[in-house]
Amino acid sequence: MEEKKPVVVYGANGSTGKLICEYLREYDIPFIAAGRNEERLEAAMKLVPGNETADYEVRAVEHSVEALTELFKGASVVCNVVGPFHFYGQPVVEAALAAGCHYIDTTGESNWMKQLKDEFGPKFAAANLSLCPGTAYMYINLEIAAQVALEEDGIDTIEAVTSSNGIPTYGSTQTIVSLVKSESTYYENGQRVDWPVAKVYETVVPGYVMTQLAHPWGGGSLPLWFEDDYRVRNCRTLTTFPDRPMFENIVQLEGHYHKDIKKLPQEEQDAILFQIAEGMQPGHPPRENRLIHSCVDYAIGTGGARQREVILRSGPAYLQTGAYQAAAAHKLINQGPDKVGFVSPCQMLGHRYLLSQTETFFATELEVR
Ligand SMILES: NC(=O)c1ccc[n+]([C@@H]2O[C@H](COP(=O)([O-])OP(=O)(O)OC[C@H]3O[C@@H](n4cnc5c(N)ncnc54)[C@H](OP(=O)(O)O)[C@@H]3O)[C@@H](O)[C@H]2O)c1
Fold first, then answer.
1. From the CB of residue 194, how many other CB atoms can be counted at a distance below 10 Å?
2. Which partner from 99, 136, 242, 274 sits 20 to 30 angstroms from 209, CA to CA?
3. pLDDT tens for residues 65-102?
4. Residue 172 beta carbon below 6 angstroms from any ligand 1 atom
């Protein structure tokens, strides 16, 4: 009987799923490309550069705990790319746990991460497995920058901003729009504090002459990852794209949601937001261009009179996400995680390991001031 492939990519035919498959081949990792439609999966796999030499199989699967558990059994790592995750993620996490697999996904949704931490973190820890949502550009690079700042003893406060120029995919746009429903929190003196609703901030991003409009974006994931870290008392992060009109639209939409949509029944709210996202991005944008698309992640660590600024300049966000997922699978399969239970990517794999992997594939520069 053929041996089970160690990695299952669920949502493999999507924009990011294809990139994960591409980088799994770079690491020479056999994988199952799974999703809800076999034809779309087969067609997508033909578009993955180099896939003719990859060791993979295609499997269509129903989106249920039972069917997904059956598919995942015998594998080691589930890479889930079916988002928005607060809509679709729960059965996939349950199935990964039932099948005894480490779970990673590409979310940037803090509401989903909070849910996972409370509901599933202890169960994964008891099973000696890692549960690591957010194994993706947003917010690994910001976490790397923050972790480098925290290498200096005495730093206890992190202020950070992530800025990427790219075109959101269909799935990302659905996710971005659904985030207007999410509460946004930061972490101050050991407590979660709410960000004001429908507000953007003028923000300085290194390398840009003009300021950018930044948004709390659900609060980002750093406050959640650092709330159990004894070194950190305060953590606040913002997200921006140099595309200013897009941010003006987001804040208007958030205001519209709170004034007009929030009072409607949940299903109606979701249907309206789905339509709005469809209007913004009905299809799939072209593959990123390394000469055009890049990212800047900027963390300022302070503590007493100490200050450390860290700037991580890197390549395209979606390509990096593909590489990070494959790099995570590579370490999980060959060495196992540094930590089990609910973990951030840097806690699971080490920030210097993740940095080395993005440096391997992309023009990356880490500056520490
Ligand atoms: N944090 C980050 O930096 C980062 C980076 C990349 C992606 N992401 C997130 O990852 C998610 C996916 O992004 P993407 O770019 O790959 O989007 P995408 O191109 O739209 O792909 C979405 C995938 O999910 C599948 N899917 C959608 N609804 C489903 C359902 N009800 N049941 C089963 N499968 C379903 C799609 O299958 P069909 O083709 O059959 O519809 C497709 O395979 C988004 O939430 C995005 O925000 C985050």
1. 11
2. 136
3. 999 999 999 999 999 999 999 999 999 999 999 999 99
4. yes
